[in-house]
Write a structure and sequence with these properties.
Elements: E1 3-6, H1 13-18, E2 26-30, E3 33-37, H2 43-49, E4 61-63, H3 69-72, H4 75-82, E5 92-95, H5 98-101, E6 116-119, E7 125-128, E8 131-134, E9 148-151, E10 156-160, H6 168-172, E11 178-182, H7 197-207, E12 211-215, H8 219-223, H9 230-237, E13 240-243, E14 249-251
Parallel strand pairs: 3-4, 4-5, 5-6, 10-11, 11-12, 12-13
Antiparallel strand pairs: 1-2, 1-14, 2-3, 7-8, 8-9, 9-10
């Protein structure tokens, strides 16, 4: 079964710190390949408590979009889990360069545990088992930040993590069949490098994916009960929009 499991949907520090929404990142199962994206606080616990339980010892890869703590807190733990504490050299870790060389979040002692440590860069493509992982564009988020376009045999699944809006995002993620967008803000706030709802809608409206999934919600999204607005958002963008919740499984 191919599916995406949202171990957490918290965005912004207050929602993460208070755990109004969990912050466990996103788990992907595609054609027998397993990987975890942005393992924030609680990833391991949420996976173990998941129904059915997710066995993270079987993951083949880890993708880290950027070094902010709500995305990277359990990156070293995930490396240990994937490699059986370093006794099994396996898997690949994808991460920006500043996660290793500038205020690093990936610790030196576990960098040799995976088979491969890929430093991701804008417009580069990487082989990942029988999948292709493309890094379409560098985001604008204060630290080095990247999303991905993952090509399977019949789908392109894209992840747009934290960023301020800029028009090139639309062209960079065009062609996506399934589009996951971190949408922290209900309304735009100046000098905050996160997408708001109207900006996410603009991206969806122009890319026209088969399905769009909003996640990584800040306090204003929760206060405005974004989960109740699914139908009106879908009508505005002429695409089915799914509002992720903690533990949600999306099958495709």
């Amino acid at each position: 079964m191919n599916y995406i499991k949202f171990l957490g949907t918290a965005g912004a520090r207050f929602v993460m710190i208070s755990q109004l929404r969990y912050s466990g990142g996103i788990f992907f199962s595609i054609d027998g390949i397993f990987f975890i994206v942005d393992p924030g606080p609680g990833t391991l616990v949420r996976a173990v408590q998941s129904k059915p339980k997710i066995d993270l010892t079987k993951i083949d890869g880890i993708f880290l979009s950027h070094r902010h703590i709500d995305h990277s807190c359990e990156i070293n733990l995930m490396i240990e889990v994937m490699t059986d504490g370093g006794f099994k050299k396996k898997g690949v870790v994808f991460a920006p360069s500043d996660c290793l060389f500038e205020d690093p979040v990936i610790l030196l002692y576990c960098r040799n545990f995976p088979e491969k440590l890929e430093i991701i860069e804008e417009k580069k493509k990487y082989e990942f088992k029988n999948l292709e992982l493309g890094i379409p564009i560098k985001h604008r988020h204060g630290v080095e930040t990247y999303g991905f376009k993952l090509k399977t045999k019949d789908k392109i699944i894209s992840y747009i993590p934290d960023t301020e809006f800029f028009p090139d995002l639309i062209g960079a993620y065009s062609g996506s069949h399934i589009l996951i967008i971190n949408t922290v803000l209900y309304e735009k706030r100046e000098n905050i490098q996160h997408l708001c709802l109207s900006e996410a809608e603009e991206i969806i409206r122009n890319i026209k994916p088969e399905k769009a999934i909003l996640t990584h919600f800040g306090m204003t999204m929760l206060k405005n009960k974004i989960w109740e607005k699914k139908e009106e958002i879908s009508k505005r963008v002429n695409t089915e929009v799914i509002i992720a919740n903690d533990g949600m499984t999306f099958e495709f």
